[in-house]
Each structure stands twice: as C-alpha cells, then as structure tokens.
Amino acid sequence: MSIHRKCEGVFEVRWREGGRNKSLRVHGAHELARKIERKRMSVRDENRHLDVKREVNFRMVALIERYWTHYGMRKRSASREKSVLDGIRLELGRLFVREIDGNAVGRWYENLTAIHELSPGTAVRHFNVMHHMMEKASTIWSKETGIDRNPADQVEVMRPDDQRDRYLSEDELRNLKRALDEKTYQKGTNAINKTFYRLRLIVLIAVTTGMRAAEIFGLGWSDVMYSEGLVAVRAKLKGGKMRYVPMLPELACELRRYPAVIGEDRIFPPKPGAISGRQRVEGSFEDLLERAGIEDFRFHDLRHTFASWYMMNGGDLYELAKILGHSNIKMTERYAKLARQHIARTGSTAREMWKLLDQPKVLEAKTTCDTANILSDVRV
User: Disulfide engineering: 339 pairs with which of 93, 156, 166, 311, CB 3.0-4.6 Å?
Assistant: First the structure.
C-alpha cells in the first residue's frame, strides 16, 4: 500500500486486493489519507482467505480421486471406501471444494438416511470417510483446495449407541453350543458338514477369543500358534502393531479338524464367485440364533460376550484391552461394571485368606486353654 500526493489537498491511496490493483482518491489532509489506508489494509487482511477461495477452482471430483489414490485404496476396507466415495462423487462431485461448507456436508449426511435409507450406523461410517477426506483437504492440501477448516466439524453426528450390554447368559451359551453341535455332521453319517462347520468354527473363535469378524476372516493358518496356545491377529491397528489372543485347547482341536483349502493360507477364504473382498456372517448366523432360541443378538455381540465373561470371572481390565486390541483403555472400561457386579465371587478367596490370618489367634487360644487346664490339674 502507498499514498501519493496528486495536488494540494488531494491524495491517492493505492493497494492490491484480490489479485488486482486498486486506488481511492482522498480530499483532505495527509493524516486523513493515512487513516483510510489503515482501514483498507485491515479490511483486506480480514478477507484475505476469502479472496484465496475465489481464486481456487479445485473441484470435489479431483479431491475424491486424490484421496482415493493416497488413502482409500490402501485401506483394508478399500471396497467399502470406494463405494462411499462414489456416493459422494455422485452428489457433490461437480462442486468446488471451497463451496462445501457445514450446511452442504449436513445435507449430504441427512440424505444418507432420509433418501438413501441407510442405517444410522452405516451413515456414520460414510460420514467418517467424508470427515477424513475433508480433513486432508483443509490441512495438507489446503493450498490446492482453498479451505483451511474442516467443514465436517460443523455437523452434529448422531452416532448409534454402541454401548449395549448384550451378551450371552449361561443358558444361552449352552443353547448356542447345542445348536452348533446339531449340524456338525451330515445327517445320518459321520462326515463333517463342511458348509455348516465353517460357520461353527467362526462362531467358536469369536466367542472364545473376542476377535472381530474382519479379523477372523483375515486369519491365516500361519497365525495359529498351536505350541504356544495363541492366535496372532495381524489386523492393522493405529500403532501398526500385531496382537495375540489366547487359544483354548478345545479350539485348537476344532481348528485341526477344519479342512484347509489347497494353495490358500487363509483359514476362511472368500467363497467361489464372491465379487467383493469383504466377507460377512448374515443369514446362516440368523438361522443359528433362531434354532438356539436367542433373540436381539448380533454377531459383534459374541465379542461382548467374551469380554463380559472374562471380567465376570476375575479378568484384568488392562489385559482385556490388549486381547481386544483397544487402543484406548476407555473403550474397555465399559466392562468394568461387570467385574463390580460379580465381585462377590471373590468372597471365597477372601474367606480362605481370613482363615489363614486368623489361625495364629486360634492356636494361641487353644494353647491358653490347654495351659489353663494343666494348671488347674496341678492345683487339684
């Protein structure tokens, strides 16, 4: 910015704004021109980010392609990620990234359930992809996109309650095992029912290790450590670490009986003809629950069942966090109340300890009584 004297009592204030040279003539004293100059500088600086936005024409379709190349295609859930990005491209692809504000993201998110009829949980997973993409757009790619704040931060997301306490009771566990055993063999023969045994083994792994469905489907025969009694879970965690879960001897026997697919390391490879790499446990699991008489139950609740029974039988909260692969202990603390509810089970241990502590007093009393008897005999 600069001030130029044109003639007596006339000054010209010059500055550059929005990529253009601008000027304003001021009639009056030089001090008045200085005040106007400072005011123009202030207005220009306040609106500088808006000027940048107007000059950047980076479209959402380009952002989506960049995000897919750098992040989406590298995720384990790449097929689902691509589906989500295709949906965003269809609805918002033609807009400039600088045009996507909180209202635009909010409308897109609301349409997921209102128009596309997605479940609340699925809608949240779609939103997480959008949030991650816009976070990259507003940070490492901000110069190209023209935004410096994540518009998805302005959207209030109604996350479904994942704190449900549903786990199998003792009777339900017996019924589940009975339903699993009923179809182990082909009717009237000693041959294993291969179709059902796949589901049987998946369920047994889930309920006795607490592994997620995706982790179970990703297991390889090389992950089964028979000698150590462990299963290696190589799913990608935030720290990129591998964890180990305990394997019961009974589960090891079930794994040994399960036929391996020739030339395939995975225990549960995708079924022939499967288009997507993702695998799910749906219809067959629902049929199993119906035969077992179990209601209001999801496959993921098998993981809750393992964690709940672990804590109810005196398990350690921090060890449970390691077994479940929780990156934050707060995720595991939901099971702490079960340990408190069943803490009376430790009463027998405490009672035995009390007896041990009380033994010296009993012996002392007995010795005192014996001594008194001896003395009384002597007096007589």
Answer: 311
